[in-house]
Structure formats: structure tokens, C-alpha cells
Write a structure and sequence with these properties.
Layout: H1 2-29, E1 32-36, H2 43-59, E2 63-67, H3 74-81, E3 89-94, H4 96-103, E4 115-131, H5 139-148, E5 154-157, H6 163-175, E6 180-183, H7 187-195, E7 201-205, H8 206-215, E8 218-223, E9 248-256, H9 261-275, H10 278-286, E10 290-293, H11 296-317
Parallel strand pairs: 1-2, 1-3, 5-6
Antiparallel strand pairs: 3-9, 4-7, 4-8, 4-9, 4-10
Helix pairs in contact: 2-9, 4-11, 6-11
């Protein structure tokens, strides 16, 4: 009887081990896909590819980037929202995630209920630049000049609803400025017209305008970060002239709703460790990105507040999707 019981117990134990190990093994060998709602080559794509490279050795997994651009990031977000919550399909998203709930009347997903925030990745402040012969050389002079000529000056907008568009609208709302927006299909054509004097100003990533400011082709009046940027010595934060003004693009890592606590903890730890890698940090700094990290709860709180913040701004601007 003892021998018979031992054989039965052993078989039961082996069956249990096989049953529990098979799914875990399959999950551990499957690649983790980072879905990106932007085309290759931009800052969002760079952040995602850096995360894939530096999270992989921490997780002992393969991470691949999959670009699904369109609709301000909504196509990628919808795909992840409807994916299995096994930690194998994640979203690298950006500021439009907070803007879109107000910009679009009907989203195919709920930005709060359908996602599990994992970690903030990075923020990127921008710069207010004007054409080289603009009749103001400082932010106080700029405010005075624009207020004295309502509706006269124009701002190039690379994409409606982008963080750069919203930075300009926030400045106008807080300072009571009347500036006409000129929409473009991308930052580059807007920048080309600014350099040619067809528009008067724009908010732009520091990477896009640094060389033009250094050469004197454009003039930088202020940065959107609370602190000065080392790349732009002598250019003050706009918040010194417009108290409370601050605006930065942000990039975050999210998963589908209902990730298990253990999966969430593992992914958050890996993301934070990746962001501490010195080589990755230097890569981010070349894009003027500031690595952040932080807890899942921090990102969840930030997104909730950011959606409310942009709702007010979108209502003020009357912006509609392109």
C-alpha cells in the first residue's frame, strides 16, 4: 500500500509541475512587444528602442518595438488596451495620451480603466523660438509686443493636439495673448517656414532648433521647463515671466488593465533600472530628454491629473483632431 501511494503521489506531483510550468515557460520565452503610436525615427521611437535594449538583460527576455502610428497614438493605445494582460504587450505612449480624451469625441478605449500604468520614462521640455528679426529679444518684451498687436503674429504648429501645440495654447491662455496658429503637417515644414520668415514663432524640441539658435538663424526667448536648460545658456524659463507656466512632453510605459501585481512589480523595476543605465541616459540627453522613472502609482496619478489639465486647455482652444 505504501509503495502504491508513493507512486500515485509522485505522478500527481509530476502532473502538477508540468501543468503549472508549461504556461510560465511559454510566457517567459515569448518576446515582449513594445507598441509605439508614433513612426520610427522620432523621440517616442527612440525612447521605446532604448527601453527595449536596456530592459532586455534585466528581464532576461527579448523585447521588440512595433510601430503602430496614427490618430495621435490612439491606434497603438487601442491595440494594447485590447491585448491579453500577461505582460507581453506593452505601450510606450506620450503626451497625446492625456490630450486625446478631450480632443476626440469617442475613443475606442478608456484611458484610465483599460490600462495599467507601469512607469514614467522621460520628459522633454521645449523652447519658444522666434524668427531672427522678431522685434522682441526677451520674454517680457515679447509679451508687451504681442499684446500691443493682437492677432498680428503667427505661430507654426507641427501637429494639432501635440505637446508643442498645447504649450503655445497654455502660454496664450495664461498671458492673455492673441496669436494666430498656422497648422502644418509636421515640425519640419513649420520650422522651414519659421526660418524663412513666413511665420513668427513656434514651440519646438530643443534638438530641432539648437543649431539654428547657435547659428543666429532663430532666437530663443524661453524654455518650458521650471529650470534653465544647459543647452541654452542665458535663456530663462518662461515661468519667470508667466508665473506658473510649465510644459513638457512626457513618455510613459503602460500595459493592459489588470496586470498582476507581480508582473507590474517586475516591469516597473526593470524600467527603473534601465533608466539608470549611463549609456541610455546619455542617449536620452542627446534628445534633450530627462529620464524620470518612479512608481506605477506615480504615473497613474500623473495621468489622471494630466487628462483634467488638458481638458481645460482643449476646451479653451477649441482644437479638433486633424
Amino acid at each position: 500500500m505504501a509503495f502504491s501511494f508513493s507512486r500515485i503521489a509522485a505522478c500527481a506531483l509530476l502532473a502538477a509541475l508540468f501543468t503549472s510550468a508549461t504556461p510560465a515557460s511559454a510566457q517567459d520565452t515569448a518576446p515582449i512587444r513594445l507598441i509605439v503610436g508614433a513612426p520610427p525615427g522620432g523621440t517616442t521611437d527612440m525612447v521605446a528602442r532604448g527601453m527595449a535594449q536596456y530592459m532586455a538583460p534585466i528581464l532576461h527576455r527579448t523585447l521588440v518595438v512595433e510601430n503602430r502610428p496614427g490618430a495621435g497614438g490612439n491606434i497603438a493605445a487601442d491595440y494594447v488596451a485590447k491585448s491579453k494582460a500577461d505582460g507581453n504587450t506593452l505601450l510606450v505612449t506620450f503626451t497625446s495620451f492625456s490630450v486625446n480624451p478631450s480632443l476626440y469625441k469617442h475613443l475606442p478605449f478608456d484611458p484610465i480603466k483599460d490600462f495599467t500604468p507601469i512607469s514614467m520614462l522621460a520628459t522633454v521640455p521645449s523652447v519658444l523660438v522666434v524668427r531672427k528679426d522678431f522685434p522682441a529679444k526677451t520674454m517680457p518684451e515679447f509679451i508687451t509686443q504681442v499684446k500691443a498687436n493682437p492677432g498680428k503674429y503667427t505661430a507654426g504648429i507641427g501637429a494639432i493636439g501635440s505637446s508643442l501645440h498645447m504649450a503655445g495654447e497654455r502660454m496664450k491662455m495664461m498671458a492673455g495673448l492673441n496669436i494666430r496658429n498656422i497648422p502644418y503637417k509636421g515640425t519640419n515644414p513649420a520650422l522651414t517656414d519659421l526660418l524663412g520668415g513666413q511665420v513668427d514663432m513656434m514651440f519646438a524640441s530643443s534638438v530641432n532648433v539648437l543649431q539654428h539658435v547657435k547659428s543666429g538663424s532663430l532666437r530663443a526667448l524661453g524654455v518650458t521647463s521650471p529650470q534653465p536648460l544647459p543647452e541654452f545658456p542665458g535663456v530663462p524659463p518662461i515661468g519667470k515671466t508667466i508665473p506658473g507656466f510649465e510644459s513638457s512632453a512626457w513618455f510613459g510605459l503602460l500595459g493592459p488593465a489588470k496586470l498582476t501585481p507581480s508582473t507590474l512589480s517586475t516591469l516597473n523595476r526593470a524600467a527603473r533600472e534601465a533608466l539608470q543605465n549611463p549609456t541610455f541616459r546619455k542617449m536620452l540627453e542627446r534628445e534633450a530628454a530627462i529620464p524620470v522613472g518612479g512608481s506605477a502609482a506615480d504615473l497613474a496619478s500623473f495621468i489622471r491629473k494630466d487628462i483634467v489639465r488638458y481638458a481645460e486647455l482643449v476646451k479653451y482652444t477649441g482644437a479638433k483632431p486633424e
